[in-house]
Amino acid sequence: MPPLPDQPRAMRDPAVETGRRAALDQPHIAPLTEFVHSLRARDYNEYPFFEPADGGAEASILFVLEKPGPMTVAKGRGFREGSGFISRDNDDSTAEASYRLYREGGVDRRQSVLWNVIPGWNGTIKVTASKLKAGVDDLERLIALLPRLQSIVLVGKRAARAKPRLEGLGRFSIFQSAHPSGQVRAINPHPLG
């Protein structure tokens, strides 16, 4: 597993991103890398890779955010340049807030993994009902790849809409949380506490 960063926005360092790319075939992350490749093969949305510094397929906690933003898109893919990963280490304010919240909450990143209820970035923050349904279908496939899963945290109102479909899929608890985006923090400076 790549070394764990000790500060937010670690992906702004090209060496960190390069190291994460080199780790995509490690045993704990390889099944999730294959899952992303299967999503990428079906359409032109940009599906970020899972963060190899997180728990991957060994995770007991799944944080499900709403939709990837442009900073999850790999450089040179036609959108704004980012890391190509869904990561609390991305160089953006939502990732930084996530990094700090998980750390302050005592969440061991090696026991957790991040994903989005709408898994692909398509150049807009708009979420349609059909995209949400397809995203939850993909989420069900992902859950099958996480044999140690104990808890799912639905982060944000859009992610919370997946709860009825997730209940009964496995022996895990489902929680809801406010989204750490700047928009939510501007309305409520302490959305999680």
TrEMBL record:
Domain of life of the source: Bacteria
InterPro entries named among the record's database cross-references: Uracil-DNA_glycosylase-like, Uracil-DNA_glycosylase-like_sf
Composition bias type Basic and acidic residues, residue spans: 9-22
Pfam families in the record: UDG (PF03167)
CDD domains on file: UDG_like
Domain Uracil-DNA glycosylase-like: 55-185
Protein name per its UniProtKB record: Uracil-DNA glycosylase-like domain-containing protein
Transmembrane segments: none
Start and end residues of each stretch annotated as Disordered: 1-22
